[in-house]
Amino acid sequence: MVNKTVTNEGLSLILFMTKSGTSFFSCLESRVEQDGEMYARFYLGKFSRGQALTLINPLRRVLLGEMPALIINTVEIAGVNHEFSILDGVQENVLDLLLNLKGLVFALTGSHSSFLKNDTNSFTGYLNVKGPNRVTGHDIKLPHGLTCVNPDHYIATITIASQLQIHFQIKLVDQRNTSTEFGASKEPENTSTTFNLKEFENKFSKKTFYLDAFPAPVRRVNYVIQDLDTVNETESITLEVWTDGSLQPHQAVEFAFQQLTYQFYTFTKLSKRISTEIPNLMSLS
């Protein structure tokens, strides 16, 4: 493994290469872009003719559609009874305020930085700002292990000497089903048609807003397949990954490989079980 770090004008370029037999995987470039977004370019191989396309297609699909994501799923605003309420001294209405909160991007830090090994799937954030003031992501109070990637993101404007108090829940969810926490199995839905009035009143008397979210932690994925050795007919892949900053590109690629490995390994075990049963069936015929 070769590692090299170069720092120039605040940009950190991390180069590494890992080899195992005839295979290699390297990061050629890594940088932080506008609004905390991240970019990295990887180089991997070598593959026999046609194998590169076989690998990169499912890898790209996992990167774009199966990443864990941190989202705000519930919000409570002091003094607000419904989404059409008007807050004294706040320029935005409640709907605009909720939409602005959805634009915040969060990332795990420190011991929580790897969502692959993280046991905490839920966090609580607070916002308590006195006016007149311009409220942005800088004003959010977050627990240890969580940070706001876009702290300059606009939330609201308080025009008078009033106070804006917001409590919200942040969850690490499965991108394919944002109602399911990442790493948790989905609970079976309750199909009962019995109406519980007390449960209904308790749920909606808390003035809690449930935000729908369509997270996209990986913004874009590009790849180019190139000939590595025309004599031996081998190929390589140059892979480019852009993320929203909630996870690093190398984390996304690592997770995508683990997802694919798990899926194939599951069916490998099933095929082995079938192969042991087939001779017994053949002996009966």
From TrEMBL:
GO terms for molecular function: DNA-directed RNA polymerase activity; protein dimerization activity. Pfam families: RNA_pol_A_bac, RNA_pol_L. Residues 39-270 form the DNA-directed RNA polymerase RpoA/D/Rpb3-type domain. Keywords: Chloroplast, DNA-directed RNA polymerase, Plastid, Transcription. It comes from the Eukaryota. The keyword Plastid applies. One of its GO terms (biological process) is DNA-templated transcription. GO terms for cellular component: DNA-directed RNA polymerase complex. This is Plastid-encoded RNA polymerase subunit alpha. It comes from Pseudochloris wilhelmii.
